[in-house]
Design a protein that fits this description.
Elements lengths: L1 E6 L7 H15 L6 E10 L11 E9 L5 E7 L2 H25 L1
Parallel strand pairs: 1-2
Antiparallel strand pairs: 2-3, 3-4
């Protein structure tokens, strides 16, 4: 499972950030490694430097499954780490649901 991190212009895409986010996503989605070929993490600061808020960091996760359409989820939170964790949990639920339905067929 390949994991790639992308950021907007308002978030510094450092090696430390990439490592933290990719490790967090891999830990949550590792059991789907056989079915998921690639996960893209898109991080953005919704309010940029204009104002701060309680949910101004956004994480969009897109998982590409073998032989299926990609699945995308988003989460917004106060920090990048919280947004990544929330999106990873949503992706786990979505993959459980999608792959579970396929196994029942």
């Amino acid at each position: 499972m390949l994991i790639k991190t992308n950021t907007d212009d308002n978030i510094t895409n450092s090696d430390a950030l990439k490592e933290r986010t990719e490790t967090a996503v891999r830990n949550v989605l590792d059991r789907f490694a056989d079915q998921v070929t690639r996960v893209e993490i898109h991080l953005s600061d919704e309010n940029s430097n204009k104002k701060s808020g309680t949910t101004d960091m956004r994480c969009l996760l897109e998982a590409r499954l073998k032989g299926l359409q990609p699945i995308a989820v988003t989460d917004e939170a106060a920090t990048v780490e919280e947004a990544v964790d929330g999106a990873a949990r949503k992706m786990r639920r979505s993959l459980d649901s999608t792959l579970g339905r396929l196994q029942k067929r």
